[in-house]
Amino acid sequence: xxxxxxxxxxxxxxxxxxxxxxxxxxxxxxxxxxxxxxxxxxxxxxxxxxxxxxxxxxxxxxxxxxxxxxxxxxxxxxxxxxxxxxxxxxxxxxxxxxxxxxxxxxxxxxxxxxxxxxxxxxxxxxxxxxxxxxxxxxxxxxxxxxxxxxxxxxxxxxxxxxxxxxxxxxxxxxxxxxxxxxxxxxxxxxxxxxxxxxxxxxxxxxxxxxxxxxxxxxxxxxxxxxxxxxxxxxxxxxxxxxxxxxxxxxxxxxxxxxxxxxxxxxxxxxxxxxxxxxxxxxxxxxxxxxxxxxxxxxxxxxxxxxxxxxxxxxxxxxxxxxxxxxxxxxxxxxxxxxxxxxxxxxxxxxxxxxxxxxxxxxxxxxxxxxxxxxxxxxxxxxxxxxxxxxxxxxxxxxxxxxxxxxxxxxxxxxxxxxxxxxxxxxxxxxxxxxxxxxxxxxxxxxxxxxxxxxxxxxxxxxxxx
Amino acid sequence: xxxxxxxxxxxxxxxxxxxxxxxxxxxxxxxxxxxxxxxxxxxxxxxxxxxxxxxxxxxxxxxxxxxxxxxxxxxxxxxxxxxxxxxxxxxxxxxxxxxxxxxxxxxxxxxxxxxxxxxxxxxxxxxxxxxxxxxxxxxxxxxxxxxxxxxxxx
Lengths: 465, 154
Description:
Chain A is α/β, with parallel strands linked by helices. Chain A contains 14 helices and 21 strands. Chain B is an alpha/beta fold. Chain B has one domain (about 5-150): Mannitol-specific EII, Chain A (3-Layer(aba) Sandwich). Chain B is built from six helices and five strands. In chain B, strands 1, 2, 3, 4 and 5 form a five-stranded mixed β-sheet that branches. In chain B, helix 2 (about 20-35) packs antiparallel against helix 3.
């Protein structure tokens, strides 16, 4: 595959601009079509891209954009229909991969007569689905252990929260590595408060850190021993609002948590009761304190407000948190978390200021998903670590790539990349090993790396070129 | 650092009584207290049980490594115990556990604590080690075997 890919972006809204910036930095050639002259003017001087003002439903616009033979179309205009039609047009112009944002959900629900393949769309971006998945991810990370399998199961990334009982508590990463030389694992990411740390040797493991360790599958039991954690009690989660996002969140979480869903509309509640077998569906007004109490709010570990009303979500979230935390004689309440779903960006700061513990920006979620798709195509596998701003990827070192030229500690640019990516494991001579500074990677070796999303281009340069 | 040098002769128990986790941990705690390592026994029992409740320390079928940090002791203390009839110890597969390495460490020595756990995890990975140890019946034999097996490795 050629490395100088050409990308056509349709629409310069939040997602389009974010992607144009990120992808231009990777050296890919970017062309943007946008109908709004103001948006074009704002982008001039800010984006390293060819900007074309015009209507994507007009053939001449595609000719001017020199669409023929480009590698990707990213259709993220405001209009679902335009994005879908653009994918079809792009296919006729010979564009290889088509990504389209489609907000409406009706097209591909049960009994659909048309598929994304029919429309020549390779990746459909549904912002609401991404939000639901992200919420589920964050909660699973917060309340339970997580495991990602790599290399066909030979390696795993195990994520767990560090408690008082952990034997790693208060130790430097390099002390840990020195002590445990014979069972192979490496700490590849730490989530601490809201920050993500890709730790170096001097970093210390602290209480309540969420630690991600790359480990050989056979060494997982030994790792769990020193991590000092295991199965925990099943946590209780309440979702307020049974619309599409709320019910989808409940569906994704129902196997891991004890779930309640509170829905205002009686017939919708009844319908959800039939669809979601492992969720207790309640009918009532989530903004009413008495209803919340009756629904069992005080024993919840997490409350998610997911109605269609931004303001209601923010206020109910604040109310719920106050009620849970202020109940007398119970320390459980101090751990409880609230998540408020808000659509408009203007509300994000407000929601955080009002005490919501987690505020999600769906534009960045959509952008990162597309970025990972495009950059990830040249990698064997890529997975997002739960709730951490980092990807774990598996790739094969290309002949004469920079990573093969010296030991990992002295690879060109390694100093600048400290804290941004970690080469965690290497498969060489039929065996996986945790990577250390002296490790040498040879062409053809498989490599597992943990990397901040914005540094995927650097990783690509290091290993694949 | 070796396992044999950390395992105290007065804390080798070839006869731990079952049938379950509580009985084993209670017996270990009482014997640690009787040997003057900790005081009171009940505090150690609760700490060991608390750790087990977070996740079983049974790392291999038949082998568990109960451990905790304990204020007021001076150095890492390791004990070896065998429960000949096997005890129900919360292992995932439900297999009875016969061999127990218990590690108690001062609260301010996290590196030494980790090192002992690592030493034991490494030692029990050798299947022959566990099988042979379980054939022994006296404290002297057990200590001698630990020393011998570690010398071989060097």
